[in-house]
Amino acid sequence: MDVPFLLWLAVLGLIVGMLAIDLVAHRRAHVIAVREAALWSAVWVAVGVGFGAWVWVAHGAEFGQQYFAGYLIEKSLAVDNVFVWAVVFTYFAVPREFQHRVLFLGVLGALVLRGLFIAGGSVLIGRFEAVLYLFAALLLWTGYRMLRQRDEHLDPERSRALRLFRRLVPMTDAYHGQRFVVRRGGVLLATPLLAVLVIVEVTDVVFAVDSIPAIFAVTDEPFLVFTANAFALLGLRAMYFLLADLVHRFVYLKVGLALVLVWVGVKMLLKVDVLYVPTTLSLAVIVTILGVSIAASLRATRGQGRRALEAPAAPPFRVASDEETAALEPVWRRRAAVR
């Protein structure tokens, strides 16, 4: 696939432009309602699918199918990531009106990190084809682990990232609006919102370790790997606010994701020396597994409505009072003028 440098710049410009639109639309802290989240989710999906349709028309059906296979894998794995975020935000009692800022920066960081991972993965595959065996083994192991631990959930209280952050960074015990740092008594302090952002970024890195090898199993074109990742990630914030209160309904999704990872791991093993699995077949298998797992989940939980996760009785952080926030000092102090 011949991708000129100007096309790379155009795609990056589109991504930056969409992020800017999203940032401007949510510049004020507010609770994002289901209707607003559904509208934005539809916009992001339309952008991702529209880009895939352009790839199909401009570069042929094979590359179009590779893009959509990668997009589906990333989007489905992103749903699991959304559920982890729901657990994190609930445990730390992050006010809903502050969550979008954390997710925006978290997704921005994930785009940068995954871009670096994709570049590194492309170089490794180009120089050492045997690394595909390592990727395949990682996918098979991750799929097996997800099947065994399908009923287990993240426990933020045991997060090593949080313990390390608290040990190294002085912080307040209260949220001060959407601020990540504040100054009190002449000391610069992190707020709990910054700690939550760090945990979100760490979880993004963990998910990238699974998702990047998975998408390389369906396409080895760096342009398709990056764009499928990027357009799947762009809609994560809206997807979170749409699905966060429906975690309890997707009871079989993790099983479906595990089977998808096992499938693409087997496909990657076969691809190295044995057999090339056509992209059409691979895409059909992925769609079938995800469709069955989602349909089975919704059928098993039919009649259940939206329900927020149960918050801890004593959250580790609180919301600062207006008086506490008003007493804060400016974060950036001007140097006194020299007489």
Automatic annotation (TrEMBL):
<protein>
    <submittedName>
        <fullName>TerC family protein</fullName>
    </submittedName>
</protein>
<dbReference type="InterPro" id="IPR005496">
    <property type="entry name" value="Integral_membrane_TerC"/>
</dbReference>
<feature type="transmembrane region" description="Helical">
    <location>
        <begin position="6"/>
        <end position="25"/>
    </location>
</feature>
<feature type="transmembrane region" description="Helical">
    <location>
        <begin position="77"/>
        <end position="95"/>
    </location>
</feature>
<feature type="transmembrane region" description="Helical">
    <location>
        <begin position="102"/>
        <end position="124"/>
    </location>
</feature>
<dbReference type="InterPro" id="IPR022369">
    <property type="entry name" value="Integral_membrane_TerC_rswitch"/>
</dbReference>
<dbReference type="Pfam" id="PF03741">
    <property type="entry name" value="TerC"/>
</dbReference>
<feature type="transmembrane region" description="Helical">
    <location>
        <begin position="276"/>
        <end position="298"/>
    </location>
</feature>
<feature type="transmembrane region" description="Helical">
    <location>
        <begin position="187"/>
        <end position="217"/>
    </location>
</feature>
<feature type="transmembrane region" description="Helical">
    <location>
        <begin position="223"/>
        <end position="243"/>
    </location>
</feature>
<feature type="transmembrane region" description="Helical">
    <location>
        <begin position="130"/>
        <end position="147"/>
    </location>
</feature>
<comment type="similarity">
    <text>Belongs to the TerC family.</text>
</comment>
<keyword id="KW-0812">Transmembrane</keyword>
<feature type="transmembrane region" description="Helical">
    <location>
        <begin position="250"/>
        <end position="270"/>
    </location>
</feature>
<feature type="transmembrane region" description="Helical">
    <location>
        <begin position="37"/>
        <end position="57"/>
    </location>
</feature>
<keyword id="KW-0472">Membrane</keyword>
<keyword id="KW-1133">Transmembrane helix</keyword>
